[in-house]
């Protein structure tokens, strides 16, 4: 019904038989109401317009949720996080993880109410209006494409590093590596959603296996009181000092902010971006079997995953490697903590193993980005008034949005071309970093939409209800604002914060003004 009202804005003549304003967007927006709550419609009834196939099983969704929680940041970037604030980084990971869990509970509550939606972004439009919905939809898709471009570059870089551990130089073939990986992942996304789910299942299994193996190795080293000599770690400029395994490495000289409160505050943005894309499971609901049984399980287990895979891994790492040993190389990079633990244990082939898993993690991230970008562009195109864009918003015979996936992949494939021109590449780095800042706007809008949902007649008290929503929702919004503010604390992130605000003001302002004048014209056409 809402689409009918929007298309009426382009008509010069309104038929006399038009129902009395039942189809205007103002009437469709939920009204604040303290009275009663809506009941849950059946998934079958809600799926009447859902052309996608529900091919994802409980096993797929559970591991997709795990994959969305674990990225390359844990394997390679956690060393920089530890260097900023020492053992207290564990508390930062827990705090940020709890807030991200609150975000997922809000998304989960709305998706549980209407599991036929292809993306949680739709709730921004439903409860905050078409202007904010347009801003969120396009911004999220652009951010996904930009992240995809950085991920495809990361995949080829890790691939080159992996072969370097065997003395093989394939750096001249980076462009071909990127093309091959992208073609393979696009093929996976085009075949069927259950094939995508199966691939993500095994990607997640590989990541989980490495983390569990590292934690188990650290436990054994601690129990036997293992001592290790000075070692030249792969990826570190200088040899690391000799040491031993023990929890005293964590407790010795413990301080919340050993490098100052500025460094401690900056650690929040680093940890936040490590959790980025945790909301991906909120894009798979319309293609999940038994979504109202599967979704709550996947979301509620996020806290357990955070405690095991992030907190458990960090504690294990710092019990083996004193946190003061994490120092930056001349180029600002850090050695992988996972490689350090395994090399201290005497496994000199650890670099190849870790970078194989990192390639897997980056491929998983790119695979998920293609999936998500395809669904978001499909949603945008299917609701567009543009005949050209509408051609993208169709589902293939395999019941996947093939055209939207291919368009998104084609833009991601521009990454090697952009990297070939230094000036263009510098601008791209700024835009891609700003895209991460845009995620914060999306999360804030999602939480505000959740507040509107709870105050609307749509609210279902017998659904997957977020506990103490007034408090927890407010905490999440305040936290996301705080994280955005930390972007202005350092020179290397200030540009991202400014670029994000420029995008919000210019594109957000355009979307809101366009919506305002469109609604005004519609009211005039209907005689109001």
Automatic annotation (TrEMBL):
What's the chief localization of this chain?
Answer: membrane
Its GO CC terms are: plasma membrane
What PROSITE patterns does its record include? AMINO_ACID_PERMEASE_1
Subcellular location per the Swiss-Prot or TrEMBL entry: Cell membrane
Give yes or no: UniProt keyword Transmembrane helix.
yes
Output the GO biological process annotations, alphabetical, semicolon-separated: amino acid transport; transmembrane transport
> What InterPro entries does the record tag this protein with?
AA-permease/SLC12A_dom, Amino_acid_permease_CS
**Topology with respect to the bilayer:** Multi-pass membrane protein
Amino acid permease/ SLC12A domain mapped to chain residues: 60-494
Q: Gene3D superfamilies, alphabetically? A: Amino acid/polyamine transporter I
Q: Where are the transmembrane segments?
A: 61-78, 84-103, 140-163, 175-196, 208-228, 261-281, 302-321, 341-366, 400-421, 427-450, 471-490, 496-513
**Which keywords does this chain's UniProt record carry?**
Amino-acid transport, Cell membrane, Membrane, Transmembrane, Transmembrane helix, Transport
User: Which PANTHER family does this one have?
Assistant: D-SERINE_D-ALANINE_GLYCINE TRANSPORTER, GABA PERMEASE
Query: What family classification does the UniProt entry report for this protein?
Result: Belongs to the amino acid-polyamine-organocation (APC) superfamily. Amino acid transporter (AAT) (TC 2.A.3.1) family.
Which protein is depicted?
Amino acid transport protein
């Amino acid at each position: 019904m809402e689409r009918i009202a929007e298309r009426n804005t382009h008509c010069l003549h309104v038929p006399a038989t038009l129902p009395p304003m039942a189809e205007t967007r103002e009437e469709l927006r939920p009204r604040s109401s303290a009275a009663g709550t809506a009941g849950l419609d059946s998934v079958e009834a809600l799926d009447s317009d859902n052309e996608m196939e529900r091919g994802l099983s409980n096993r797929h969704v559970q591991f997709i949720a795990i994959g969305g929680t674990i990225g390359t940041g844990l394997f390679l970037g956690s060393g920089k996080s530890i260097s900023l604030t020492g053992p207290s980084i564990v508390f930062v990971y827990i705090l940020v993880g709890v807030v991200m869990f609150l975000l997922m509970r809000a998304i989960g509550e709305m998706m549980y109410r209407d599991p036929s939606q292809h993306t949680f972004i739709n709730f921004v439009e439903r409860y905050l209006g078409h202007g904010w919905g347009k801003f969120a939809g396009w911004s999220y898709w652009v951010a996904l494409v930009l992240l995809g471009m950085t991920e495809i570059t990361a995949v080829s870089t890790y691939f080159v590093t992996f072969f370097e551990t065997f003395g093989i130089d394939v750096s001249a073939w980076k462009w071909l590596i990127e093309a091959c990986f992208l073609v393979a992942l696009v093929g996976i996304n085009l075949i069927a959603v259950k094939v995508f789910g199966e691939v993500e299942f095994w990607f997640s299994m590989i990541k989980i296996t490495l983390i569990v193996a590292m934690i188990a190795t650290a436990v054994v080293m601690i129990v036997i009181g293992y001592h290790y000599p000075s070692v030249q770690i792969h990826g570190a400029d200088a040899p690391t000092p000799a040491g031993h395994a023990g929890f005293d490495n964590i407790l010795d000289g413990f301080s919340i902010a050993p490098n100052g409160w500025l460094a401690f505050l900056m650690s929040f943005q680093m940890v936040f971006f490590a959790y980025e894309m945790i909301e991906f499971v909120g894009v798979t609901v319309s293609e999940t079997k038994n979504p109202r049984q599967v979704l709550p399980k996947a979301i509620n287990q996020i806290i357990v995953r955070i405690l095991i895979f992030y907190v458990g891994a960090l504690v294990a790492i710092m019990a083996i490697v004193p946190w003061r040993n994490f120092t930056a190389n001349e180029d600002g990079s850090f050695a992988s903590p996972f490689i350090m633990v395994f090399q201290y244990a005497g496994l000199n082939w650890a670099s190849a193993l870790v970078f194989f898993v990192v390639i897997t993690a980056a491929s998983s991230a790119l695979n998920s980005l293609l999936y998500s970008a395809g669904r978001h562009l499909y949603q945008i195109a299917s609701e567009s008034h543009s005949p050209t864009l509408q051609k993208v918003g169709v589902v293939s015979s395999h019941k996947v949005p093939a055209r939207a996936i291919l368009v998104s992949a084609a833009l991601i494939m521009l990454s090697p071309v952009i990297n070939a021109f230094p000036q263009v590449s510098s601008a791209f780095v700024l835009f891609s970093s700003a895209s991460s800042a845009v995620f914060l706007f999306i999360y804030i809008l999602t939480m505000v939409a959740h507040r509107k949902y709870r105050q609307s007649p749509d609210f279902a008290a017998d659904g997957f209800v977020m506990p103490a929503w007034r408090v927890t929702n407010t905490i999440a919004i305040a936290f996301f604002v705080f994280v955005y503010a930390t972007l202005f604390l350092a020179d290397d992130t200030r540009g991202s914060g400014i670029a994000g605000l420029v995008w919000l003001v210019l594109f957000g302002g355009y979307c809101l003004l366009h919506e305002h004048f469109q609604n005004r014209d519609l009211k005039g056409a209907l005689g109001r």
